[in-house]
Structures are given as C-alpha cells and as structure tokens.
Amino acid sequence: MRKPLAIIILMYLFIIPCVLAMGETDVYQIQNGEDDVIMTETLALDTDGPYIILKDYDISYKIGLRFTNINISRGETITEAILSVYCKYDFPNGTGTVTIYGLKVADAPVLDDPEDLNGPLTENYVIWNISDVKGPDKWHNVTITPIIQEIVNQYGWENGNSLALIILSEKGNIRRQFTSADYMNPAKLYITITPPTPPEANYELIQTYKGYEIYNVTIGGDMIEDFTTWTEYDPNNRLSQNSTASIYENLVKGSNVEVWLNKTYGEGYFDDFQIEFYEKVTDCYSSTSTGVHLLVVSNITDSFYDLDEAEETYISVEVTYQTSGKVKARLWKVEQGTAIFGTEIQNLNVNEKYKFVLNKTDTTVTLKVYDLSNNLIGSVSHNLSEDYKWNLLMCPDSWGGYGSGYVMSGYIENLKIVGGGVSSWHIEIWYNGSQINENFTSLDDAINYIDNVLIGPEEEPYNPEVGGYEVIPRRIVKLSFLMSGLGLMMVGLIAISYKPTLVRAIMGILMIVLAMGLLIHLTQI
Prior knowledge:
Blueprint: H1 2-20, E1 24-29, E2 36-40, E3 45-46, E4 51-55, E5 61-67, E6 78-87, E7 97-102, E8 126-129, E9 138-143, H2 145-153, E10 163-169, E11 176-179, E12 188-193, E13 203-209, E14 212-219, E15 231-233, E16 239-241, E17 245-252, E18 260-264, E19 273-284, E20 291-298, H3 304-309, E21 314-323, E22 326-335, E23 338-340, E24 345-349, E25 354-361, E26 364-370, E27 376-383, E28 392-397, E29 407-417, E30 424-431, E31 434-440, H4 443-455, H5 474-497, H6 502-522
Antiparallel strand pairs: 1-12, 2-3, 2-5, 4-11, 5-10, 6-9, 6-12, 7-8, 7-10, 13-14, 14-30, 15-18, 16-17, 17-29, 18-28, 19-25, 19-29, 20-21, 20-28, 21-22, 22-23, 22-24, 25-26, 26-27, 30-31
Helix pairs in contact: 5-6
C-alpha cells in the first residue's frame, strides 16, 4: 500500500508543479448578481436568484456571465481557458447540451438590461454536453479557449477590461442549474497564458500588443558580449569571431596595418564602469616591438597609432613582448594625444590564460590581472585630468602605422561589462520568435509602428453611443410592429364594411394583407 502513496506524493511534488509552470493562470470569479443573469424568451431578466438555470424542461434561456478586470493584454496567447460552475444539488439522469459564445465587445457592460445579452456574439463557440453537470456539491468544467482568445484579440481590448459569456439553452428533457453570486460559489473563469520567451537574458518584455511582443533591450550590463554582433575592420583577414571570443592571428605592430573590432554602446555609456575579460597569447614574435592592444575604450574607431596622432582621449590595455615565452601587460592613458603607460604587469606566460579587470571610478583608471585561481598577478592605475566618458570599445586594436612588422596571435573571450555606465537600451518588436524592427526609443513609437505600418489602420466597430442614431431595443420594435399591424387591419376592415365601393374594397384588402405581413414579421423579430 505504500507504493501508490509514494507515487501520489511524487505527483504533487514534481509533476503538478511542472504543469503549473507551463503558464501563468489567473482565476476570475463572478462578483455580484448583475454579472450572472438569466433571460427568458419573453425578455424577463433575473439578476437576483440563487441559481442560474442551465437547462429546463419547458423554457429556453439565455444566460450571461460577466468577469471583470481581466489581466490580459490584447493579442496575448491564451494557452487554456476554463469555465467552472458549482452544482449544489443532484438531478435525475438525462442528456442535453448548451452552446457557449462570447459577447463580442471590447469591454463587456454590467448585465442589468435584456439588451446587454442581445449584443454581437463571437464566431467561436463551444457546445457543452451538460448531462453530467449536477451535484451534489460538485464543480464542473468546460474548456472555452478559442472564445476567450477571440475576445482579447479584438479592436479596443485592453488589460483590465471585462468580458462576458453568453450561454444559449433550448428547452429540453432535463433540468440543470448552478449556484449564482446571490447564493454561493459563483462561476469561475480560469485563464492560462504563456508569456513569450525573451530572445536573450537582456530582453525584458514590456507589453504584448496585437500579437506582437515589445521588448526593452539593455545593452551592456553584467553579461557576456557576443563578438559576432560587433563591427570589423580587417582588410588583411587577421581577425575572426565567435559568440564569446575575438581571435587575432599574426596581428602586426607594423607600418600602415590597421585592424580593429568595435561596438558602439551609446553616448556617455562608459562613465564609471568595470570591464572583465580573459586573454591568452598563443604566439609572440621575439621582439620588443611586438604587441597588441587588446581593449581600447574610445569615442571613435581607428588604430592605436592614429588615435594618438588625432590627439584623441582614450584608455587602452596592451600586451607586449617581454622575453622568450613571456609577455607583459600595460594600461595606457592617452589625453589629447599624450600617451602614458606607467608600471607594467610582467611575467605573463605565453599559452596561459589570464583574467583582466579594467575599472574606472571618477578620474581613476585601474587594470588588474589575475590567474585562473583568482590570484592577483599585478595591478596598475592612472589618474585622469578629468572625468571622461566614452561610447565604444575596440577589441582588439592594432598599432597601425608605427614600427616594423612583428606578429602576435591569441584571443580575448568572455568579455562582460559589469554594472556602471549610463544605461544604454532600446526597444524592439518581435513576432512569433522573429525580430520585426528595433531601435525604438519609446513604447509609444513601437505601438504607433505596429498600428500604422505592421497592421495598418483598423476600422473601429460602430459604437451606437457615438453614431448618429440609437439602436432601438427589440421590445420597442415589436410593439411598433404590433400597433402598426393592428391599426392597418382596423382601417382595412372599416374600408370594406363602411359604405363599400369597389375602390374602398380593393384598398381595404391591400391594407389587411399588409397588416397580416407586419404581424407575421413580428414573430420573426
């Protein structure tokens, strides 16, 4: 007996949480008597009874269920929607069905008028077999996913709106009912949505709008840079990249050789910052003129030598030949073309990987180098004359037009920007896992692009409160037809019977025929 119990416990501990994790489920429940109503064929509306009659022997019903404050944005994907009702009492066996629609309006009104239940219905519907929908004291469910999806997809739907379900019940050979808000356990609506999976960790879903996902994309931050997205200037094919590494081969510290890989982050992004990366020199020509600038923080792209010549202000991390099998690291500060590298971090082994950490706080720049056990090998700092800000990285950057051609090979990998800097971000639009457009600077711009370019203007459904006429309630139309038909019938009879002539007789007969047509049409309204 213990084995089945263990299986049940495992289901609760593992299987059920996994199922629930597949989406976010919200539960909505009828709040008051005007949100669960029944209406008879004679337009009699009942908002106060303890029960909602789902099926009866000799009366057909139209049932309205309104759920408020729905936490779903327009176009969000509905994974599952379930209507649940509570049956207090048992009933005799029998068979029967009802048909469930949605009220196709963008924000369902309070159901306190018969005309509220006569609005437009969704194209989607569900035929519910209610034979077993009975008590005692049981909840019964029916899945209505396509109905809810159609409601939240329509023009004008917004997060926080209300929706209504309309149940059409023809009289039959069984009786079924469920409890209302005026008694106990009113109907519930379970809606599960599966939010789209962000493309990357730095993508934050702002809103789902008309089926499109709008993301806020943070550039930089504590994440590994993808070098395949960087811009390359490499006429001599000395660089290659993958998603985590920038590889340089035979990079020359030589005359008129300009090579760099760069990425722009936004004006003033590199204010106070910390940049971490790993570096390994795999080959180094034995000459004091051999060197590579691994990382340059600047405002323009160019070779190290030409940045110097242009009297730019920037900082750079270099590795250069020290002795056979060893290199050394330098931290350069260059202000208006004046270059200083100061103390060197020496005795870094060729073919050994090291961690480099470049930090700027206010006017102090520091480079630290660690081994893979996180032991500090050395550090060097510079003081800047003012608190500079930069907007791009180059990784690596050649010396360019200086010296003769000595080569170095190696790679930089797992570069990340840790905090700091001016926030750099933009907004992107995605649809079904594909990027549609990017670089919007506000949510309004993205929404306008969806409305005016991706979808185009939509025709807003006619609103009788705004239009030039009012929708006439059906009971008034029926009464008008009845009065007109009876009036014409009376006039026709008078024409035939009072001082009859041939002309009067013909006119009277025509009026009676017209009256009969109106009365017959009355039964079709």
